Amino acid sequence: MEEYGIQKDSAAWLFFVKITFLSALTAMACGIFFMPCELWVKGYMTMGTLFTVGSSITLSKTLRDEHEANKIVNKISDVKTEKILKEYTSDL
After folding, report:
1. Strand, helix or coil at 4?
2. Residue 5 — left, alpha, or beta (φ > 0 → left; ψ -120 to 50 → alpha)?
3. Rg (CA), the chain
4. What is the per-residue pLDDT across 32-90, written as a single tens digit (0 to 9) for each?
5. Rounded CA gap, 61 and 71, in Å?
6. Taking the model in full, what pTM does it have?
7. Which end of the chain is more exposed for a tag (fewer CB within 10 A), N or C?
8. Is residue 28 within 8 Å of residue 49, measured between CB atoms?
9. Could you tell me what percentage of the chain is helix, strand and coil, using 3-state DSSP and rounding each to the nearest 5?
10. Are 35 and 41 in contact (CB under 8 A)?
């Protein structure tokens, strides 16, 4: 059975996204590690980075889930509308 309307990303795109994410985290970690400051400042920067990454992932997942839910609701609404129109036009 084929599923229509589901767009899948290419393997190259998934690889690119994962590599850029890891590169950004590595660069940030190196920047914090080599920053000329006290340990508590480095800890604060690390904590801020981790919370930013975590909240970004949570936000993107939530927005995707909301978008998917709206697509399902719209499909159900469209089916109900088509049913009403068919009933109306068959009565004419």
Report:
1. coil
2. left
3. 24
4. 999 999 999 999 999 999 999 999 999 999 998 888 888 877 777 778 888 887 877 77
5. 15
6. 0.64
7. N
8. yes
9. 85, 0, 15
10. yes
